[in-house]
Specification:
It is a single chain. By secondary structure, the chain is α/β, with parallel strands linked by helices. It has 2 domains: 2-122 and 275-283, ATPase, nucleotide binding domain (Nucleotidyltransferase, domain 5, 2-Layer Sandwich); 134-269, ATPase, nucleotide binding domain (Nucleotidyltransferase, domain 5, 2-Layer Sandwich), CATH 3.30.420.40. 36% of the residues lie in helices and 24% in strands. The chain contains 9 helices and 15 strands. It has helices at residues 44-59, 99-106, 119-130, 173-176, 179-190, 197-203, 208-231, 251-260, 275-283; strands spanning 5-11, 15-22, 27-28, 34-37, 67-72, 76-77, 82-83, 113-118, 138-144, 148-154, 157-160, 167-168, 171-172, 236-240, 267-269. The strands form 4 sheets. Strands 1, 2, 3, 4, 5 and 8 form a 6-stranded mixed sheet that branches. The longest helix has 24 residues, at 208-231. InterPro entries: ATPase_NBD, ROK. Belongs to the ROK (NagC/XylR) family.
């Protein structure tokens, strides 16, 4: 049925991905996936137009219900569609704007509903609905990328956890678990200049400084998880986001650390990638 086909959208700090999702079984319609890089430092008109171009392509790829569910990073007023991202390294130009209104006016295709959902919550919803984390009652999920996304799942339902502003070592989690931290640490240790984590991992020879950065990240994450586990006795951890693609550089150390701290929970790296957020967003409306 067309009513089952919803457009799921994942908006990150440097990209947008959209696809039509059959919410009945959580599958993505073949040929409906579209992805483009986005200049998150551009003006509002440029950002909105390029987002909508990608969404429009997916909407026109197959019959659908005209419903859009967008996994959006915060701070964001998800109910009213207002962006409050500022000083986060992305989308400052949209601060205080009615993003829903701007999108609806830009989209040429008929849209019946347009929903915004927290991106980390959508990611975890996709994982606990259609991934190995579905076997656990209490799950925490984190997206590692431009920012630090977090969500908590209970009995198959995920919600935003807002751990990005959780106090940690004299700062907040966002200070230690975002791409800015990785780039800054690597540049400090080497005296080189890399601009993002992908460049750091792809273009730099793996050696002492790079491993030192990821070792430090593992210890910081382990300290945070130890704090969190004392408050929330979760059963499972799931990591997603672009930085999690480099899990071989931090996962062994992190597993060892939490084992030494007597946290007996499995850690999964998302095998679904961005499709987890797409599926989770679409299935939540």
């Amino acid at each position: 049925m067309i009513d089952n086909i919803v457009l799921g959208v994942d908006i990150g700090g440097s990209h947008i991905t959209s696809a039509l999702v059959d919410v009945g079984d959580g599958t993505i319609l073949k040929g409906s996936v579209n992805r483009e890089k986005i200049d998150s430092f551009a003006d509002a008109e440029h950002i909105i137009r390029n987002w909508c171009i990608v969404m429009d392509r997916s909407l026109q790829s197959a019959a659908n219900a005209g419903k859009i569910a967008i996994a959006m990073p915060g701070p964001f007023d998800y109910q009213n569609g207002i962006s409050y991202m500022k000083g986060m390294g992305k989308y400052d130009a949209l601060y205080g704007m009615d993003v829903r209104k701007l999108m609806l006016s830009e989209l040429k295709y008929k849209v019946n509903e347009l929903h915004f959902k927290n991106d980390a919550g959508c990611f975890l919803q996709g994982e606990i609905s259609h991934g190995p984390a579905a076997a656990y009652k209490l799950v925490v999920g984190f997206t590692l990328g431009t920012g630090f996304g977090s969500a908590f799942g209970r009995d198959g339902v995920a919600m935003d956890a807002d751990y990005w502003c959780h106090p940690l070592m004299g700062g907040i989690c966002e200070d230690f678990f975002s791409s800015r931290w990785f780039v800054s640490k690597y540049n400090d240790y080497t005296g080189l200049v890399v601009n993002n984590v992908k460049e750091l991992i792809d273009d730099i020879v793996i050696g002492g400084p790079l491993l030192q950065v990821f070792d430090e990240f593992s210890m910081n994450m382990g300290a945070f998880l130890t704090q969190l586990y004392k408050k929330q006795k979760f059963d499972c951890i799931v990591f997603g986001g672009n930085i999690s693609n480099a899990s071989t550089l931090f996962l062994p150390q992190l597993k060892y650390y939490i084992q030494t701290m007597a946290i007996p929970v499995p850690i999964y790296i998302s095998a679904k990638g961005e499709t987890a957020a797409l599926i989770g967003a679409a299935c939540s409306v």
